[in-house]
């Protein structure tokens, strides 16, 4: 499957066109900032998840592809034990710290961009047990819109990890460094799954990927002819590390897992993911859905009720199950979250099957699955946003299907659009959506609504 080779080292001289101009501008910015040219560059792409939302951290497969938008770092190793960071976007402040006793503080509010870089550096140091890190001078150029659901934060972590590995002359396989990055992002408190990091390293131009976890495996899936995807940014921003909404969903899935395990007489505290429970019970997705409907109730569970069901105190539940930033929550919806996860996990494999089956109606069947996914994210998982829903309604009648992509609560949608109607769809969004949004004034709309194709994974350039 080609998942165990290292990220490629490519020739900088072969990067042409607009991307070549961007690398050149970043190099000039670096030299002006640090007084000498960079030693190498790292590129890490963003991603769009075509289907399979909020299920990777439950142990289920996802269906993403890399996009052209990316994070590019210009890097130089230095003997001084210091990490210096600069961003071409002046809204991101410069940052510097010592490499000795490196740590990442968990912020109570918005996460500074430098923390994502430090996550990647620290993840490599701890995984590779590097006693002393080479100092780094880094300049960054990003074309992924922040908090858009296209994984700008994970791309920063991945680029920083790859830069740290190369500067310290350490090699890891793509799958191994993806795992390091998935774990490293938890330094700032995000209880993510691993999809973003996996596709960042394992992506292959021209194909989407069905990614399985434990162990990490990636399967190329050729999209059918005529499949064109258009991404539209709702302009509603949501930083998943800056609130407890994302982690609350993770915990609700964990609570659902433990309540269901307890109902089957299993040692419930050993189970943390719905996927692991399903493997233990050897049941189909439809059977897990039936189990949810039978065992759990639709009304919200209070923390007190969950403790009573599991036979623990609130302090024990905090220690065994809940994350630090979800212990204050008093009501949970494990019924709805579990229904979404099992139905969405089934849709991922249905989507691959449809892609590979062909037939005249293949695109409409893919679109229907995307529509069902969005409805489930909106109604069962409650991670949509009114602006995302508006874009999906505008897509009706033009696109085969549309859905939110990424964590949700803002960010982007992805729509499957007939090739001959892409311009019509983009024009419709510009007039019926962006023209009515004050936040869109002055923006280059071609950067917020655009067609995309599967791109390559992370790479080093020299």
TrEMBL record:
The question of whether S-adenosyl-L-methionine is a record keyword is answered with: no
Q: Does the keyword Nucleotide-binding apply?
A: yes
* Keyword terms of this UniProt record: ATP-binding, Kinase, Nucleotide-binding, Transferase
Cite the GHMP kinase C-terminal domain residue spans from the record.
364-434
**Domain GHMP kinase N-terminal residues, every copy:** 118-202
GO molecular function, one example?
galactokinase activity
The record, for Pfam families, names: GalKase_gal_bdg, GHMP_kinases_C, GHMP_kinases_N
Q: Which GO CC annotations does the UniProt entry carry? A: cytosol
Q: What region holds the Galactokinase N-terminal domain?
A: 29-76
User: What biological process terms from GO does the record include?
Assistant: galactose metabolic process
UniProt similarity note: Belongs to the GHMP kinase family. GalK subfamily.
The protein's name in its UniProt record = N-acetylgalactosamine kinase
**Taxonomic source organism:** Amphibalanus amphitrite
Gene name on record? Galk2_2
